[in-house]
Amino acid sequence: MSAGVKTRERSLITPEGVDLRLKLGEAGARAGAFLLDLTFMLIALIVVTVLLIVAFSQLGAAPGASGRADAFAVVWILFFFVLRSFYFTGFEIGPRAATPGKRLLGLRVAARDGGRLSPLGVLARNAMREVELFLPLSFLLSDAVGVDALISIVALVWCGIFVLFPLFNRDRLRAGDLIGGTWVIEAPRRKLLPDLSAAAASDAYAFTTAALDAYGIKELHVLEDVLRAKDDATLKAVAERIRAKIGRPAKPGEADAAFLEAYYQALRGRLEGRLLFGQRRADKHAR
Fold first, then answer.
1. Whole-structure pTM value
2. Are the CB atoms for 16 and 236 separated by under 8 Å?
3. For this UniProt entry, which segments traverse the membrane (predicted)?
4. Rounded to whole angstroms, how far apart are CA atoms 244 and 250?
């Protein structure tokens, strides 16, 4: 493993007590994701602008018509405000915790304390983007009277400080990440390992519906990571926690890895079955 990858590795202790090794997103990938998101926002803005022009034209109120330009401007500015304010927050507060740009480049937002990603944390990290970038950029791009060269220079320096801020701290955190208690990690798309996706659960392992409803999709992903890592100490610790949670003592001679693989397969089947009926259980806290 290269030194660069090692320096981006972090230990994250989940609420289940599992030590996961995560990789922080590279600065280049994060910048690329942000540029992609800006591109998607620009496309949305262009599409809405064209639709508004068509709509106003159909109503006999073209934007250039006297007395109607203000109405067009109000609607356009309102949409731009909503898009700028809620694009990042809306996507990152969802189950994937990532904007389309982040998803394309294999990134996602996570809570630094290993807990659930809270809406307040997501809101805080994205509200700071207004101060970090959009507000000073509005000064740079503004042609309003009174915005002189000095203010433009200050705005440019302000942007530079915040844009380069992740390069000067160990965890590659934006100012918004510091306030929101978040960081951006790698989350590449992966197929299930053959022994996890294809292996049928042994007849020796039978789990009740209550036992399978003890966990959700988030815990399933954690369990998958544990099985991939194949660390004996972690397998033992997780197996003990699950047995205690579902009230199923270990049988004599029962291997922790075999028990976890069987539970993984049964839990996955249960969650997929619920999804067919429109019932999505994000994690063990959901009902």
1. 0.62
2. no
3. 31-57, 69-87, 149-168
4. 9
Q: Which of 127, 88, 82, 130 is nearest to 109 (CA)?
A: 88
Taking only the tens place, the pLDDT of each residue in 108-126 is 898 887 777 888 989 989 8
Question: Tokens at residue 184, please?
Answer: 């951006």
Residue 4 has pLDDT above 60, yes or no: no
Residue 274 has pLDDT above 50, yes or no: yes
Residue 186 bridge partners (DSSP): 107
CA atoms within 13 A on the CB side of 231: 13
- Residue with the two structure tokens 């009174």: 146
Rounded Cα distance between 138 and 151, Å, is: 11
Strand 182-186 relative to strand 107-111: parallel, antiparallel, unpaired?
antiparallel
Structure tokens at 86: 């809620």
Euclidean distance between CA atoms 14 and 219, whole angstroms = 10
Which residues contact residue 162 at a Cβ distance below 8 angstroms, ignoring those fewer than 6 apart? 131, 132, 133, 174, 175
- What average pLDDT does this structure show over 72-77? 85
Residue matched to tokens 């709509």:
55
Do residues 44 and 79 make contact, with C-beta atoms less than 8 angstroms apart? Answer: no
Q: Are 152 and 139 in contact (CB under 8 A)?
A: yes
Average pLDDT over residues 135-148: 60
Give me the mean pLDDT over the 35-62 stretch: 86
Tell me which of 155 and 142 has the higher pLDDT. Answer: 155
* CA separation for the pair 204, 233 (Å, rounded): 23
Give how far Cα 115 sits from Cα of 112, 181, 219, 283, 285, Å: 8, 10, 12, 12, 12
